[in-house]
What does this fold into?
Amino acid sequence: MKRSGVFYHKVCGEKAYFSLAMSVREGFDILQQENLLTEPNILLFESEPVTEELILKVHARTMLESVKRSGYYETALYSTGSVVQATEKVLTKEIDNALAFVGVGGHHAGRTDYWGGCFLNPMAIAIENARQRFGTRRFAIVDTDTHHGDGTREIFREDEDVLHICFCEREHSDSETKVCLSQASNDEDSISKLVREVPLRISDFKPELIYWLCGLDTHKDSYGTRRLTESCYPKLGAIIKDMADNSCDGKLIVKIGCNAPAHVSEYVAPRILSLLGELNRYQGD
Ligand SMILES: [Zn+2]
Ligand SMILES: [Zn+2]
It folds into this structure.
């Protein structure tokens, strides 16, 4: 079994951006209700806010000042803190992998601009921090949210040590390490596309840690246009976990914003955590 960290702060549940507010709290609470947080290999951490100093390593001061006035600054601090802390604890081997809850998005936040419910870019900030503190260089980001991760793409455009595989509208590559693939619209195509397109790229790239942005807005009941069902996400997760186990000693951080109705998050979050911690629950469904 693996040691898995869960990172959450109640601010992310209570003051979530409206598209995520659908079910961040429910997605976390269900872990407690299902008695997953009392498993000896599951560790719960209360997320801490990131510092301004670290934010300014990635984002412009003008942007930071604007985020402070957005009404979502506190949520952005704790959401980013979730991912930064999870990354630190995985890299120091305190835990093997992590499920990090956020209350605002991140992948539409670039160096100087932000939009679409994203205020800071947690993965970019976590990568910056990891490079400074631990000298870790190479990261892979697999983004299966329904929208294009334009902020993340902009920040890492020139950075060949970050592999960004983004499932969105149209197939195109900005470089060998910056790839967009079109989203499939049903479970079967989505799974087969991931299997076909991602594992080889990851094993060639040899990341030291993998992030999975597990967007739930591809669900048929969410606001996107895809038609995935809840049972698809644990299957995608199993494939991504295998990639991490095969290419970087299992170092995987799943970032989840619960941007779908509660019944979806309540199905997905416990199953992803069970998968990360190798608890072998939910086998029959
Ligand atoms: Zn989205
Ligand atoms: Zn894209």
In short: The mean pLDDT is 96. Residues 145-147, 215, 217 surround zinc ion (ligand 1) (CB under 6 Å). Residues 4-276 form a domain with the Arginase; Chain A fold (CATH 3.40.800.20).
